[in-house]
């Protein structure tokens, strides 16, 4: 039986994404063409591979069996192509999740350089809180994610560190006198605190950290994402913990001040997260490896 390898490649993307439209985007094709090829493949194999459902497609038993072989074959071929320096024949689309902090500390610079080298690759960034990004990744809506640690990670995922960073304690100009001294951990409760709210990993991290000093720390003003902390600090609504790099321009322009604290704050990091054992499209694998190489 002589079947065009391109049919198997398209089947790989359809099965990988569980959605005809997303597979077509990754392939740089269109939905009618992908649907046509899937019908041809089923006809040539003499069996049904896909079941069309309201939310996408699922594989029949025959489809699952075929995918187990096609996934391994495509994985080897994509890896070989990249190892010998080949670039994707088509651009393809990559869907990634990213937190605000990860975007500003690492991802924006890396993506700018990546697009110079691979302009045909389309990148869709889903900017949410870490818990929502993790949910989307597990459900298959994203190829991978770049998020700020710590975070709760299901067993189905794996992560690798891209960048380590440190927070500083900062305040607006109304807290300039505090920049001339050094606070003890317990002193922080004397001032209004701006921070991420309950249910976020950052909240839990600082909650546990200050509990070691016997301090029950609660934000006086809670925000949903870390990029909202600095504007509130600059407007003298409180003091707060923020990555030093994100505060650098504000500190230089004297819109805020750094407040020293006589303890070492927890180390934090930017992590790249993916689903264990799940293959990626050629474009997604290319960007994934590029970001790992950049750290």
Largest sheet: number of strands, sense, barrel closure = 6 strands, mixed
Give average pLDDT, whole number: 87
Strand content: 15-25%
Instruction: Compute the number of helices.
Output: 10
Shape: elongated
Strand order of the largest sheet: 8-12-7-11-9-10
Distance between the termini: 46 Å
Q: Structural class from helices and strands? A: alpha/beta
- Report the uncertain regions: none
Total beta-strand segments: 13
User: Could you spell the SSE succession in H and E letters?
Assistant: HHHEEHEHEHEEEEEHEHEHEEH
Helix content: 40-55%
Radius of gyration: 24 Å
Give structural notes.
The chain is α/β, with parallel strands linked by helices. The chain is built from ten helices and 13 strands. The strands form three sheets. The chain has a six-stranded mixed sheet with strand order 8-12-7-11-9-10. Strands 4-3-5-13-6 form a five-stranded mixed sheet, sandwiched between helices. Helix 1 crosses helix 4 and helix 5 crosses helix 10. The mean pLDDT is 87.
State the main characteristics.
42% helix, 5-stranded mixed sheet, 295 residues, alpha/beta
Task: Give a brief description.
With 295 residues, the chain is an alpha/beta fold. It has helices at residues 5-17, 20-27, 31-45, 61-83, 100-117, 130-138, 201-211, 229-234, 244-252, 282-294; strands at 50-53, 56-59, 93-98, 122-127, 144-149, 157-165, 167-172, 182-183, 193-196, 221-223, 239-243, 256-261, 268-275.
């Amino acid at each position: 039986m002589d079947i065009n390898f391109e049919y198997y490649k398209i089947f790989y993307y359809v099965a990988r994404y569980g959605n005809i439209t997303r597979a077509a985007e990754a392939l740089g094709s269109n939905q009618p063409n992908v649907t046509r090829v899937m019908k041809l493949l089923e006809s040539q194999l003499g069996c049904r591979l896909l079941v069309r459902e309201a939310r996408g497609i699922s594989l029949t038993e025959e489809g699952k069996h075929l995918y187990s072989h096609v996934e391994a074959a495509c994985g080897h071929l994509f890896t070989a192509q990249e190892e010998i320096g080949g670039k994707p024949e088509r651009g393809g689309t990559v869907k990634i999740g990213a937190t605000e902090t990860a975007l500003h500390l690492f991802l924006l610079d890396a993506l700018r350089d990546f697009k110079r080298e691979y302009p045909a690759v389309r990148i869709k960034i889903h900017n949410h809180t870490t818990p929502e990004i993790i949910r989307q990744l597990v459900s298959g809506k994203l190829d991978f994610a770049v998020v700020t640690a710590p975070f709760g990670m299901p067993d189905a995922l794996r992560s690798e560190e891209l960048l380590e960073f440190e927070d500083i304690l900062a305040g607006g100009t109304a807290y300039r006198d505090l920049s001339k001294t050094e606070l003890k951990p317990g002193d922080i409760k004397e001032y209004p605190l701006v921070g991420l709210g309950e249910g976020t990993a950052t909240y839990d991290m600082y909650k546990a950290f200050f509990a070691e000093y016997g301090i029950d720390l609660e934000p006086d003003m809670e925000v949903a994402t870390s990029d909202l902390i600095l504007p509130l600090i600059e407007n003298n609504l409180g003091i707060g913990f923020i990555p030093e790099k994100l505060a650098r321009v504000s500190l230089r322009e004297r819109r805020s001040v750094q407040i020293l604290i006589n303890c070492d704050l927890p180390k934090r990091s930017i992590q790249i997260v993916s689903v264990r054992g799940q293959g990626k499209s050629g474009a997604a694998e290319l960007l994934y490896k590029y970001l790992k190489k950049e750290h």
